[in-house]
Design goal:
The complex is a heterodimer of chains A (201) and B (460).
Chain A lengths: L1 H33 L3 H30 L3 E2 L10 E2 L2 H14 L8 E5 L13 H12 L6 E7 L2 E11 L3 H9 L13 E10 L2
Parallel strand pairs in A: 1-2
Antiparallel strand pairs in A: 3-6, 4-5, 5-6
Helix pairs in contact in A: 2-3
Chain B lengths: L1 H28 L40 H10 L57 H4 L27 H5 L39 H8 L2 H4 L4 H5 E2 L4 E2 L5 H4 L4 H9 L4 H4 L25 H4 L7 H5 L1 H4 L5 H5 L4 H10 L11 H5 L2 E3 L5 E3 L12 H5 L7 H9 L1 H5 L12 H25 L13
Antiparallel strand pairs in B: 1-2, 3-4
Classes of the chains: A alpha+beta (201), B mainly alpha (460).
Chain lengths: 201, 460
């Protein structure tokens, strides 16, 4: 009698466990099948960044320069002058804001870097960055670079998108800048890139 | 029997000693204002006034609050366009920058309670700390090759945080300025707000308080002229009751910017921290003996019923401050200009009072001019004074030279600067070098046969 009861309990428990395991694996499979490819996520983010900066450059900065009353200058913050930040500065400030934003639950971040930076601290530093910039420069910015790396013990999916000189102002400013390491950029050249990182843990 | 009695006496003695020590400790921890027995080391000149308010910086168990520094200094650093913001060191791809000093934390460079290691600006790193990150500067800038790293921040060239008066493009725009500019004047203060119709003694709503002399003084004062009656300053809101001595918070009801900035400086930081008002007796700087117990509040410099801004600009300061710079002021050319302004020989803004330099008039983005009541805002390093004060009247080169001349600082600028900081000359050389490189680059581009791109902006 006692044996039958024990066997019965074991059968019920086993069945229950099996059902739970099946449900869990189904749920996980469902989650796995709807998780987005990190390349797609990175592309989505970059699409928005690129669009915002392009509109800022073409529709705001270029127009204001033509008006002549306000300018976009590197030292825009200096008091006494009503000036706008340069597109690259706008981009950097937005990157800082996004990094610390309460909406950034994923903890992604992005940076502007270049093999020919005005500020030497903005050179590619990690091996993946160096490889990525070699790739995008070689293909003229037609294809982004995707890679994975571990920095400070954390895994990241890293995407690099070429920053192309889309306006005369980009080329002339960089060529003539007192701290530029490269003085022969032309329209359409890859001048640097956006490095976007998604935590992969 | 005798042994039992001895033991009981020892126990009693032990209990009494412990209770006494424990009570004293608890008293020091909680109600006593003087908690100096808990100080692990002398505080810096910037913080000694609030050293008894441990929770300004510390958590209950004496950790350092994460926002301890930024809470008070964050706005100032943002306005200064901080050259080394903490965000610069939070780049995960540049963790190498943190190998020698954790520059993503203020306390890595400004460690409190460490008097033996503390240099100027409260820095507790060796003088050549710039070398931690900028070892290669001689390669990037050949002009800097061989320079000692303990000269970066004390030669009139660079500051770690605030380079608004020292960054290259600013200096390039101010290269060949005269020592004294054509129209040397500081901005005029904004007009005071008219709060209501001008009032007379008969309009005073103080009932019988104060007495006729105070009412008469108020009636002749600017507050009455601007329609500010007695109860505007002398009542609290909740509950509504009369206050004999309004606090700075009361004054801040209308003078918000002034009250807030005063609380950030050396005059008001104790009050802002909830401690008793600062007195000259507590100061580490030399003060006049007969002013030792004067309490610092708004009335100390400009009384509510006798709002004398000229007194506030000079004599209010000199009634307390007893250092060589202050004592030499009345022998200086700046004081001569101040006297000429007061007797209308020179236009308004031409004179240089203590307040002109140490509590300068600042213009906000809307063009309103107010007085900066944080006298520490432009004090150290003193190059911070260039933008807010000196260049209203002087060329940038002259200003840098004057501020770098320590004997002249002490004499309150009684004579011309004796030396010349090389900053402006270096910038001139660099400008020539940049122009040469730009010409060469332009020539190379014209000669270039690169036909890869005949693109226009519309193509992109």
């Amino acid at each position: 009698m006692k044996k039958h009861i024990t066997l019965k309990c074991a059968l019920i428990l086993g069945t229950l466990t099996g059902i739970i395991a099946l449900c869990t694996s189904c749920t996980n499979s469902e989650a796995a099948s709807t998780g987005m490819d990190p390349r797609v996520v990175a592309d989505c983010l970059f699409t928005v960044m690129e669009a915002d900066r392009a509109i800022y450059t073409k529709k705001i900065v270029s127009r204001i320069k033509k008006e002549g009353k306000i300018d976009a200058v590197e030292e825009w913050e200096d008091s006494g002058n009503m000036h706008l930040p340069l597109p690259a500065q706008m981009f950097r400030m937005a990157a800082e804001r996004a990094k610390d934003s309460k909406h950034n639950s994923a903890g992604f971040f992005y940076q502007l870097k270049s093999p020919w930076p005005i500020n030497a601290q903005n050179k590619p530093t990690t091996d993946v960055e160096k490889e990525g910039f070699d790739f995008v420069v070689a293909n003229g910015g037609d294809e982004p670079f995707y890679g994975e790396e571990t920095i400070g013990g954390k895994k990241y999916f890293t995407a690099i998108y070429a920053d192309v000189a889309v306006a005369d102002a980009c080329v002339t400013c960089h060529n003539d800048h007192e701290d530029t390491p490269k003085t022969d950029f032309e329209l359409g050249d890859v001048m640097g890139g956006v490095v976007l990182r998604l935590p992969a843990d | 029997m005798k042994r039992a009695v001895d033991k009981r006496m020892l126990w009693l003695l032990w209990i009494v000693l412990n209770v006494s020590a424990g009570s004293t400790l608890m008293y020091k921890v909680f109600p006593a204002e003087d908690k100096r027995i808990f100080l692990p080391g002398q505080t810096t000149h910037g913080h000694y006034q609030i050293e008894m308010s441990c929770n300004e910086c510390h958590t209950p168990f004496m950790g350092v609050k994460e926002d301890a520094c930024i809470r008070c200094h964050g706005d100032e650093l943002a306005k200064a366009q901080d050259s080394h913001p903490l965000s610069k060191f939070k780049d995960v791809t540049r963790l190498d920058m943190l190998k020698q000093v954790k520059a993503d934390e203020c306390i890595a460079c400004h460690s409190e309670h460490n008097p033996d290691a503390t240099h100027s600006m409260g820095v507790t790193l060796p003088d050549d700390y710039c070398g931690f990150c900028h070892q290669d500067i001689g390669e990037d800038r050949p002009s800097h090759f061989g320079l000692e790293f303990n000269t970066c921040a004390n030669a009139g060239c660079h500051n770690y945080h605030d380079n608004r008066a020292l960054y290259e493009r600013f200096l390039r725009n101010h290269l060949d300025e005269a020592d004294v500019l054509e129209d040397p004047r500081v901005p005029q203060r904004g007009e005071p707000r008219q709060m209501g119709p001008a009032l007379t003694a008969n309009d005073a709503d103080a009932d019988t308080r104060g007495g006729p002399m105070i009412i008469e003084a108020w009636a002749e004062d600017i507050h009455a002229a601007q329609g500010v009656n007695c109860t505007a300053c002398h009542t609290t809101d909740e509950p509504r009751s009369w206050v004999d001595s309004p606090t700075p918070e009361h004054c801040g009801t209308c003078h918000k910017n002034e009250e807030q900035s005063w609380g950030q400086g050396r005059h008001g930081m104790r009050t802002a921290a909830g401690l008793s008002p600062m007195t000259p007796a507590m100061a580490r700087h030399p003060m006049h003996v007969d002013a030792m117990h004067s309490q610092l509040d708004c009335n100390a410099c400009h009384k509510g019923h006798d709002f004398d801004l000229q007194f506030a600009a000079v004599d209010a300061c000199l009634q307390c401050h007893n250092d060589p710079h202050s004592n030499n002021y009345k022998d200086s050319p700046h004081y001569g200009l101040w006297q000429q302004e007061l007797n209308d020989t020179l236009p308004a803004g031409s004179g240089v009072s203590c307040a002109t330099c140490h509590m300068p008039r600042i213009e906000d983005e809307a063009g309103r001019v107010s007085v900066q009541h944080n006298q520490n805002d432009n004090l150290r390093p003193n190059e911070k004074m260039i933008r807010s004060v000196c260049i209203n009247c002087h060329g940038v080169g002259f200003s840098i030279n004057a501020l770098a001349d320590r004997p002249q600082v002490e004499s309150c600028y009684n004579e011309q600067p004796s030396g010349a900081v090389e900053t402006i000359d270096w910038v001139k050389k660099r400008v020539a070098d940049i122009e040469r490189r730009q010409r060469e680059a332009q020539e190379r581009r014209l000669k270039s046969k690169n036909t890869k791109k005949n693109l226009t902006e519309d193509d992109l």
